[in-house]
């Protein structure tokens, strides 16, 4: 009975947090309306955003203000998981509403587009040649907040600093500073600073301000939504591609590692395993993809290498920008990108995939295991790797957790591939497309689109959602919800 009362009290706190995040979602829905000052003819879409915004604001306000809970307590990881899970579902539902109200997309397509935006995937069912500016901007805004994290935005501005469990639940584990609120503010400043720099550089080399804002946000958030059908390839500009590559690499680096670099710790920055693996993979895959795949498409070696390095960075960073289609790539090139999409970017960054940190740690674990055969018995060795600006000492338990994560990731991946195969797609196309979905990448080999089967779109929706919130947080949150609801439903 006492536990039941305590549980009710805890859920009051969770509802208050969800209410605060819902207020934030309602506010975000108003941001694309600012563009109506520059495109007044699109005023007809005003109510498409106002309706879900007002509903979100009212519901969020009621949950935040009318539920009494004044104690300052720390959230557990599982409680944070429940808040993140429900808040992200609300965000996706509210964000899909403008597309449905406008009549441009059906419910499945709208949920797909919103999920792709919030998870920073970039796969799309929207025809960008016909889409109004307000909707194109809305897609980028979703990727902005999805990339940095809904929780990070709210912790940096509104929520009290006792939410470290909430911070962890959204895939953040690094405290840039001792205080959670100061850490989230530092992340926001880094994020906004890079985006602003990207916008200015894009404008300097000829992009319109509208295109520059959208592409800078999408590149740094490793989202990949573009305002053009041919993505970055539309401009056929080497300077534009170089700026995009820099932004994609910045987006895939852990925020704690950024903080290390910005404080001038250059040597420590390059000691990081993620950084070493990132540049090693780019240096390895760019030339071999160029030689074995791009030279079959382009007669000019510089052009082939230019395409090769761009697509390698795009796949590894899980951004999803491209210079051209992939339908004419050979099987080697397709599989190479699939491998890179599996690996993904840095932990605690805006990128998806298994993550560089986990791959690097499994490699180091293999090396450590080999070394034990050459050491005297009963010797104790403290194994560590550099992460952020400090050494991270690794325990066997943590390695098992990572191995379990990689296992569940790959099981989910192959289940998704089987669904594609059941719809008649070839193995290479199925592997490419679902690697892109689960890794929140956004590259497409031609399957994803408004005419794609509903089952395929929902498979990708689930894949994107699981990939962004990293499986175990969702599993633990659902398990805790069922367990707690069972307790609360008892009469005694």
TrEMBL record:
Biological processes, Gene Ontology terms: metal ion transport
Record localization: Cell membrane
Topology in the lipid bilayer: Multi-pass membrane protein
Entry keyword set: Cell membrane, Ion transport, Membrane, Transmembrane, Transmembrane helix, Transport
Transmembrane segments annotated in the record for this chain: 20-39, 45-67, 79-101, 141-165, 186-205, 242-263, 275-294, 332-354, 402-422, 461-482
Main location (coarse class): membrane
Entry superkingdom: Bacteria
InterPro entries (UniProt xref): Cat_transpt
GO cellular component terms given for this protein: plasma membrane
Keyword Secreted: no
GO terms, molecular function: monoatomic cation transmembrane transporter activity
Keyword Zinc assigned: no
One Pfam match: TrkH
Family to which this protein belongs: Belongs to the TrkH potassium transport family.
This protein's name: Trk system potassium uptake protein TrkH
Taxon lineage: Bacteria, Bacillati, Bacillota, Clostridia, Halanaerobiales
């Amino acid at each position: 009975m006492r536990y039941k009362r305590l549980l009710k009290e805890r859920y009051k706190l969770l509802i208050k947090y969800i209410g605060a995040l819902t207020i934030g979602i309602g506010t975000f829905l108003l941001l694309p309306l600012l563009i109506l000052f520059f495109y007044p003819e699109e005023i007809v879409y005003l109510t498409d955003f106002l309706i879900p915004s007002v509903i979100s604001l009212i519901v969020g306000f009621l949950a935040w203000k009318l539920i009494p809970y004044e104690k300052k307590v720390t959230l557990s990881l599982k409680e944070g998981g429940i808040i993140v899970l429900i808040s992200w579902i609300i965000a996706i539902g509210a964000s899909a509403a403008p597309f449905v109200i406008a009549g441009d997309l059906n419910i499945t397509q709208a949920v797909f587009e919103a999920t792709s935006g919030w998870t920073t995937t970039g796969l799309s069912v929207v025809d960008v040649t016909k889409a109004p500016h307000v909707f194109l901007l809305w897609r980028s805004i979703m990727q902005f907040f999805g990339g940095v994290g809904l929780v990070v935005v709210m912790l940096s501005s509104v929520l009290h600093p006792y939410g470290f469990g909430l911070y962890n639940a959204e895939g953040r584990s690094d405290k840039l500073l001792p205080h959670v609120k100061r850490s989230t503010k530092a992340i926001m400043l880094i994020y906004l600073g890079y985006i602003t720099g990207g916008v200015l550089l894009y404008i300097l080399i000829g992009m319109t301000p509208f295109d520059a804002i959208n592409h800078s946000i999408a590149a740094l958030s490793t989202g990949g939504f573009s305002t053009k059908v041919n993505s970055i390839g539309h401009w056929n500009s080497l300077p534009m591609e170089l700026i995009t590559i820099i932004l994609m690499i910045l987006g895939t680096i852990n925020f704690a590692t950024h903080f290390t670099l910005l404080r001038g710790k250059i040597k420590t920055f390059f000691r990081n395993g993620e950084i070493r693996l990132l540049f090693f993979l780019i240096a390895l895959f760019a030339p071999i993809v160029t030689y074995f795949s791009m030279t079959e498409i382009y007669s000019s070696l510089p052009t082939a290498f230019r395409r090769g390095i761009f697509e390698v960075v795009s796949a590894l960073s899980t951004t999803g920008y491209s210079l051209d289609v992939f339908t004419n790539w050979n099987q080697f090139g397709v599989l190479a990108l699939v491998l890179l999409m599996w690996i993904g970017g840095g932990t605690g960054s805006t990128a998806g995939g298994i993550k560089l940190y986990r791959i690097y740690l499994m490699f180091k674990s293999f090396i450590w295991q080999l070394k034990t055969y050459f050491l005297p018995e009963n010797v104790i060795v403290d194994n560590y790797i550099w992460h952020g600006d400090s050494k991270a000492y690794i325990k066997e338990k943590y390695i098992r957790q990572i191995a379990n994560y990689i296992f569940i990731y790959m099981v989910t991946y192959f289940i998704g591939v089987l669904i594609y195969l059941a719809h008649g797609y070839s193995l290479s196309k199925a592997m490419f497309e679902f690697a892109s979905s689960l890794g929140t990448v956004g590259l497409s080999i031609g399957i994803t689109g408004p005419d794609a089967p509903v089952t395929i779109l929902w498979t990708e929706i689930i894949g994107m959602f699981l990939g962004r919130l990293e499986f175990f947080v969702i599993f633990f949150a659902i398990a805790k919800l069922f367990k707690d609801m069972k307790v609360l439903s008892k009469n005694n």
